[in-house]
């Protein structure tokens, strides 16, 4: 069964806006791989943090359909305009807000979002490059590429509904295993949907969801069983063996 | 910007305690037809601040929403269509959202609100 995603020739552009690249394609591939689950999930509200060219939110809207409502944010004013053009070119709609992560939405949108997608600025850079204007905001991630990711994760936790899912792009340098453990402490299970070795980057697309067993364990102050932890971490151990090709698992 | 979004936005200025709802300043409103989806409306209804939606739709010239509403109204097709129109079909295309506490204006241009803060507001 094929599903429509955004077409590159219809994606708008601007010199100050990040164009769809391997990381964007990997994220959309993960959404496609998880399409059946997404359709069964019947999300009402979907959100993208940092929408850039609009390639990902447009693809999500095409995959899930217009029965859901979509909101997309970007700190770069050019990016929200370009996203608007990309959405229009595909005949789908998302509400756009020019803001830092989800500033202005956190109070009222708390616990309401069923799907969040994030392709964060994950590239390790000097700290003073983070939050600069224009296209740099699309990639500058500070120390280990974690500065913006570490701000986004608590926001995602606040906004996600009880059945909420988060799809996020990470780079091996971001220490994704540690991100998963951190999210596990907040009651989220996780799974790598796609891993991709490009010429320059080793990327993972991770899906997080609230796991009621983990949340109970957290409340009762129990530690996560070592067995589960091993299986979680073993997901990451396969990377050294991936050389020169990519492996998509669904 | 749809009124659904207006209903989900608050003033994000540091120190503001009553940042909701943002007052709407209108330069241009457009109406865009959206497919009617009663399930979505029923799902969203409990999450909507009704008074804010009524006032926002009034300010945009739509006066069909009742001031007070009981959840039983969701059984009425007529009511759902009005709710649908106010929530999803009225767009603030040009104008501003104004912080109710400080009066700070957040401009809305081409339907996109700019909620970016100045350094001294973060």
From TrEMBL, chain A:
InterPro entries to which the protein is assigned, alphabetical: DNA_methylase_N6_adenine_CS, Euk-Arch_PrmC-MTase, PrmC-related, SAM-dependent_MTases_sf, Small_mtfrase_dom
Compartments in which it is found: Nucleus
Protein's name in the database: Methyltransferase small domain-containing protein
Domain Methyltransferase small per the UniProt entry, residue ranges: 45-169
NCBIfam families in the record: hemK_rel_arch
UniProt-recorded Gene Ontology molecular function terms: nucleic acid binding; protein methyltransferase activity; S-adenosylmethionine-dependent methyltransferase activity
The family this protein is said to belong to: Belongs to the eukaryotic/archaeal PrmC-related family.
Gene Ontology cellular-component annotations: eRF1 methyltransferase complex; nucleus
Protein's organism: Malus domestica
Highest taxon, organism lineage: Eukaryota
GO BP field: methylation
Annotated keywords: Methyltransferase, Nucleus, S-adenosyl-L-methionine, Transferase
From TrEMBL, chain B:
InterPro entries: Trm112 (IPR039127), Trm112-like (IPR005651)
PANTHER family in the record: MULTIFUNCTIONAL METHYLTRANSFERASE SUBUNIT TRM112-LIKE PROTEIN (PTHR12773:SF0), UPF0315 PROTEIN-RELATED (PTHR12773)
GO-annotated biological processes: rRNA (guanine-N7)-methylation; tRNA methylation
Protein name in the entry: Trm112p-like protein
Subunit structure as annotated in this protein's UniProt entry: Interacts with TRM9.
The organism of origin for this protein: Malus domestica (Apple)
One Pfam family linked to the record: Trm112p
GO molecular function (one): protein heterodimerization activity
